[in-house]
Design goal:
- The complex is a heterodimer of chains A (about 450) and B (about 280).
- Chain A is α/β, with parallel strands linked by helices.
- Chain A has two domains: about 90-285, P-loop containing nucleotide triphosphate hydrolases (Rossmann fold, 3-Layer(aba) Sandwich); about 295-430 and about 435-440, Coagulation Factor XIII, Chain A, domain 1 (Distorted Sandwich), CATH 2.70.50.60.
- In chain A, about 30% of the residues lie in helices and about 30% in strands.
- Chain A contains ten helices and 19 strands.
- In chain A, the strands form four sheets. Chain A has a six-stranded mixed beta sheet with strand order 5-6-7-3-8-9, sandwiched between helices.
- The longest helix of chain A has 22 residues, at about 5-30.
- Chain A is globular and about 70 Å long.
- Chain B is mainly alpha-helical.
- Chain B has one domain.
- Chain B is built from twelve helices and one strand; from the N terminus they run αβααααααααααα.
- In chain B, helix 4 (about 55-75) packs across helix 5 (about 85-105), helix 5 packs antiparallel against helix 11 and helix 7 packs antiparallel against helix 8.
- The longest helix of chain B is centred in the last third of the chain and has 32 residues, at about 255-285.
- Chain B starts with a helix and ends with a helix.
- Classes of the chains: A alpha/beta (about 450), B mainly alpha (about 280).
- Chains A and B meet through helix 1, helix 3, strand 4 and helix 4 of A and helix 1, strand 1, helix 3, helix 6 and helix 12 of B.
């Protein structure tokens, strides 16, 4: 394209070209994304001792049949060998242009790895990925933002990193500023922005990309409610009007359900389901419902949180617990918490999540228990499920405390710490009112009092 | 189908890492990013400084004065008949370009780990933009050199070889290629061996003394030393630079060919190694 043409003529011509390009992708390109036999292997543990001299020493020792001086040895004398771990195992997948596909799976199922491969942050170990179209990845919005630069300068920086050209950004500048709601602060260094403004600006750039394929990883978990709504609407707009392809990863079943028709479920690096979103969500909630009376929460399952002030280690349920309790019953269990600091009062909170991924209510402990640094504290918990309607729930465990200055401070949190089914009381089905409560909501509120006056 | 559209269609194939995979077309597509990186670097370096961009001139000026006093005044090293100030200024200007380009590109992975880990763009854009940035800094410093140079020409103390003036851009290109190549290799090794970062800081210093920066080639009388210095691929560009501008120095076709071969080889190797490491470095760092 001739760069010296008048802007108007160039604009019209570019629009026509973009339209034709879109037509091509939608009608002629065989697919948007195709993965065949894709594997990704990670090495666990030490790669290298970090200094050349140690590596040479290790190599020398191995060569002469002696023990490697740099091997890690456990307390009991076991040698830790570098381990390999398949984060993705033989992934075969095809996504057509214009599809909106959800991707769900427990922590460590390989979702992030898959997105990293597609956004080319890292390369696969085996297999082949083919992509038709430009990919905009939003693994983390605002990448490349520099605190010293102004909002406008950062739009250019972030936009070009995301693959736009400068003239493209020039054309979209007004739309981006408008969407970001930053207004007159656009020429202020972003270090003066509030975190909310920062995120809005970052999302505005990403949302205005011309990419045909968008990869999103829970970007909507940020910003205030109104802005979140705007983002969801923008995404739906992207999907419907422009025929974009979206791969959306989230823990929020609600958004998956609202945005995606097709959904893929990953488990231990393998695709175990690929089909309608409703079925996928049901299956996923089922996977997570594996019943046990003892749950361990290894440090990796807290990966999403960085509070690190305590570690919720495990939960123990009575031997009779089978994952199911009757309506209006109470559930008792024990939680083991490893303290990382001394606290006179630690509080626990349970967040009840329904099968759509929506938190329907929280239960807070009224009193606290003391916590000792580097010691394990066992806490007994009695959970009254009186108002929970029959159905399947996930429970998030959160430990909190007051700081010396009287502020709330999160100590640790475990998502989907355990699952719970409130059994359906068949005998009560006769009652019309009860039936409604069960099937229309997750919470049984008090019966309504009415009378003729 | 329209040719225009065909050109715009993006078809990406991602496969396990291959050694020889240099995608220059993609780099060209991201040229706006390169220029923005350069602009950003300029914008950031002098933010919250009192003298601001003046440092571009002050830095080499102070170094030149130190060299003139220490090597010229105290050690009394001959400058082959060229005015001392001019001799050291020329050497320092070119050497600063080279050493800055190496040390800046050598930390590419370390400095950009965060961005590289989250988003894809051709990674080479970053080191290339850094070399361009040092190139522009060189241009500024050269601008400062020019009036001093003209002053001595007018006084008749130096006789430049005007007919060879066209060689200068070639010299710069070779210097840039060598700096980029070395920087890429060092930054790729640093991922695995952190101590490379320390090695490079004094490595560059040693390299400077192995290059005729503060002394002319004619002053090296020891045969062994002379051979070593001539093996240094930066020697010939340095001599050539002064030969053209100051009319002093030795010219050697063999030396220039050696430099050219070395520059191309190290650049290609550096790019390939960098590309190989870049694809999976996120799993290691």
């Amino acid at each position: 394209m001739n760069r010296n043409e008048t802007p108007a003529a160039t604009g019209a011509q570019e629009n026509a070209t973009l339209k034709a390009l879109k037509e091509y992708y939608l009608n002629e390109a065989p697919f948007a994304i195709q993965m065949t036999g894709v594997k990704k292997e990670y090495q666990l543990g030490q790669f290298s001792s970090g200094t050349l001299i140690n590596d040479v020493r290790s190599w020398w020792a191995r060569k002469h049949g002696r023990d490697d001086p740099n091997t890690k040895v456990e307390n009991d004398g076991r040698v830790i060998l570098t381990d390999r771990f398949l984060a993705l195992d033989d992934i075969n997948l095809e996504i057509k242009h214009g599809e909106t596909v959800g991707l769900i799976g427990a922590n460590g199922a390989g979702k992030s790895t898959l997105l990293k491969l597609l956004s080319r942050v890292t390369a696969p170990t085996a297999g082949r990925i083919e992509i038709y179209g430009r990919v905009a990845s939003m693994l983390e919005v605002g990448t490349g933002f520099n605190r010293e630069l102004t909002g406008r300068e950062n739009i250019y920086m972030n936009g070009t990193i995301l693959g736009m050209t400068k003239s493209e950004i020039d054309r979209k500048m007004d739309a981006i500023i408008d969407f970001s709601e930053i207004g007159r602060y656009i020429d202020t260094p972003v270090k003066r922005y509030s975190s909310g403004m920062y995120v809005k600006l970052a999302f505005a750039v990403a949302a205005n990309l011309d990419a045909e394929i968008m990869i999103m990883d829970e970007v909507l978990a940020v910003g205030d409610m109104a802005f979140q709504k705007k983002c969801i609407e923008k995404m739906r707009g992207i999907e419907q009007e422009r025929g974009k392809t979206i791969l959306y990863v989230s823990h929020n079943m609600d958004t998956i359900k609202r945005l995606c028709e097709r959904c893929i479920v990953l488990k231990q690096g393998k695709i175990i389901f690929d089909g309608p979103a409703n079925e996928a969500i049901a299956l996923y909630m089922g996977i997570n419902r594996a019943v046990a009376t003892h749950y361990d929460y290894p440090e990796s399952s807290h990966a999403r949180y960085n509070f690190r002030k305590a570690l919720i280690e495990s939960a123990d349920f009575p031997a009779s617990f089978n994952g199911q309790i009757p309506e209006n019953a109470t559930l008792s269990f024990r939680v083991a918490v490893l303290g990382k600091l001394d606290l006179s009062e630690m509080y626990l909170r349970l967040e009840i999540v329904n099968s759509y991924g929506t938190v329907i209510g929280v239960m807070n402990s009224e009193r606290g228990v003391p916590l000792k640094k580097n010691a394990r504290t066992h806490v007994s918990v009695v959970m009254n499920c009186a108002h929970l309607a029959p159905g399947n729930y996930q429970v998030n465990l959160v430990a909190e405390a007051y700081t010396a200055s009287g502020e709330w401070m999160k100590l640790d949190a475990v998502d989907s710490a355990f699952s719970l089914e409130i059994a359906y009381n068949a005998a009560a089905e006769e009652q019309h009112a009860h039936w409604f409560a069960v099937w229309n909501s997750s919470v049984n509120l008090e019966p309504l009092q009415i009378a003729q006056v | 189908m329209d040719k225009e559209i065909k050109k715009l269609i993006q078809h990406t194939v991602i496969e396990p890492k291959k050694l020889l995979h240099l995608n220059f077309g993609e780099l060209w597509k991201y040229r706006d990013l390169i220029s923005l990186f350069v602009k950003k670097d300029f914008a950031l370096v002098y933010k919250q400084t009192i003298l601001g961009p003046l440092w571009v001139f002050l830095n080499p000026l102070i170094t030149t004065i130190i060299y003139t006093v220490v090597f010229g005044g105290i050690a009394n090293i001959s400058t082959d008949g060229v005015p001392k100030l001019l001799f050291y200024m020329a050497g320092n200007t070119l050497w600063t370009f080279f050493s800055e380009a190496i040390s800046k590109t050598a930390t590419t992975f370390k400095d950009n780990a965060q961005v590289f880990g989250k988003i894809y763009f051709p990674r080479l854009t970053r080191p290339i933009s850094l070399v361009l940035y040092t190139g522009i800094n060189f241009a500024f410093q050269f601008l400062m050199f020019v009036p001093v140079w003209i002053f001595y020409i007018v006084r008749g103390e130096v006789q430049p070889h005007w007919t060879y003036l066209w060689v200068l851009p070639v010299v710069l290109l070779f210097m840039a290629a060598m700096a980029l190549g070395c920087g890429l290799i060092v930054s790729s090794i640093t991922i695995k061996y952190r101590d490379m970062a320390i090695v490079i800081t004094f490595g560059v210093k040693v390299w400077m003394y192995a290059t005729p920066v503060v002394y002319p080639m004619t002053e090296v009388n020891n045969e062994l030393l002379r051979r070593i210095i001539l093996l240094n691929p930066v020697t010939q560009p340095m001599e050539l630079f002064r030969f053209v501008l100051l009319g002093e120095g030795t010219l050697s076709a063999a030396g220039m060919i050696w430099t050219a071969v070395f520059a191309v080889a190290i650049l290609l190797f550096g790019m390939m190694y960098f590309n190989k490491v870049e694809k999976t470095f996120m799993d290691t760092i």
